[in-house]
Write a structure and sequence with these properties.
Helix content: 40-55%
CATH class of the domain at 20-65 and 72-136: Mainly Alpha
Order of helices and strands: EHHHEEHEHEHHHEEE
Shape: elongated
Structural class: mainly alpha
Strand order of the largest sheet: 1-2
Distance between the termini: 26 Å
Strand content: 5-15%
Radius of gyration: 41 Å
Number of strands: 8
Largest sheet: 2 strands, antiparallel
Number of helices: 8
């Protein structure tokens, strides 16, 4: 079995969020203050331009009213025309600046309130998710403590130490495997492998996921036939639990905040450890219904049996909540039931 080196639990997110939130709030306030100062400067420039423009027009009017020689009058007229063009252009700029100023003054407070509201909503959402994650961890610990089976008298110490380690490693994280092997062997829980009377082997490991083969023991002096010497296959009656890797729900939710739905990665913890080919093969579990339908003489009974086989595929998915892994190129699945049911399935 492959083990992962646990990394130390991350520091509390609530303590890290406070400096970041304060820095973000300070940055927003600084930006808003800068915008307010710029708007005030623009308002001052608007007043100065209007004041100086009025004074210039008054001076030009007084100069034009004076009695000057013809040459000077022509020059004064040219200066007055140029000043008029400049006044028209300046008035257009002043009007545009006045519109921008009024718009900025009208919406600055609304923008500030909107930014503050969005920030408060985000902080409230993070606090809610953090509280939800803590409640989830508490419920998970309570469930694990309630479902622990009573161990042997000699194993009380190990059981108690295991409970303590579960509480200490509540927020334990695991690094992802850098070199992913082709096959991963997962240790199984021995209590899910029930032994039957036909299995006479005492040396096979109960935690091994491979199939067990045992030989029939024959009394001394008896002739051993080919059938008695054949290996008897004992199949498991239950699948082992998945590895109890700590799943930090808060870290998953925190990484999804503010991202598009198409860019949020789905953790593999929510997938089932089986392939789509296996689920397709499981549809053959009640194939004997088709054999019975082929032997029936009544068309109505045949129709009932075929319909029952059609809906029987739901029996293997009724209790499943996770989705299987996506099919991979070169993936194969084989199910050999020739001895028990007379069929063998091979998919690729």
């Amino acid at each position: 079995p492959h083990t992962h080196t646990p990394t130390p639990p991350p520091p509390d997110d609530s303590g890290d969020e406070t400096p970041a939130s304060q820095a973000e709030q300070t940055e927003v306030q600084t930006t808003l203050q800068t915008l307010v100062r710029k708007v005030e400067d623009l308002s001052t420039c608007n007043d100065l331009i209007a004041k100086h423009g009025t004074a210039l027009q008054r001076s030009l009017s007084e100069l034009e009213a004076l009695r000057l020689p013809p040459d000077n009058s022509e020059r004064v007229r040219q200066v007055n025309e140029r000043a008029t063009l400049f006044r028209i252009t300046s008035n257009a700029m002043i009007n545009a600046c006045r519109d921008f100023l009024s718009l900025a003054q009208a919406h600055s407070k609304k923008w500030q309130k909107s930014l503050q509201y969005e920030r408060d909503q985000r902080i409230r959402l993070e606090e809610t998710l953090e509280q939800l994650a803590k409640q989830h961890n508490n419920l998970e610990r309570a469930f694990r403590g309630a479902t622990v089976l009573p161990s042997a008298p000699g194993g009380k110490g190990s059981s108690s130490s295991r409970d303590l380690s579960d509480e200490d490693d509540e927020n334990e994280f695991f690094d992802a495997m850098e070199d992913v092997p082709e096959f991963i062997t997962v240790p199984a829980d021995p209590r899910y492998h029930r032994r039957t009377g036909s299995n006479l082997s005492g040396t096979s490991s109960e935690g091994n996921l491979e199939e067990h083969f045992t030989e029939d023991q024959t009394p001394a002096g008896c002739e051993v036939t080919a059938r008695d010497a054949a290996l008897t296959r004992t199949r498991r009656t239950g699948i082992p639990d998945k590895p109890n890797y700590s799943l930090n729900l808060w870290s998953i939710m925190k990484n999804c905040i503010g991202k598009e739905l198409s860019k949020i990665p789905m953790p593999v913890n929510f997938n089932e450890p089986l392939s789509m080919l296996q689920r397709l093969t499981e549809d053959l579990e009640y194939h004997e219904l088709l054999d019975r339908a082929a032997k029936c003489e009544s068309a109505l009974e045949q129709l009932c049996l075929v319909a029952a086989f059609t809906v029987s595929s739901y029996s293997t998915t009724v209790s499943r909540t996770g989705k299987p892994f996506n099919p991979l190129l070169g993936e194969t699945f084989e199910l050999d039931r020739l001895e028990e049911h007379g069929y063998r399935s091979l998919c690729e």
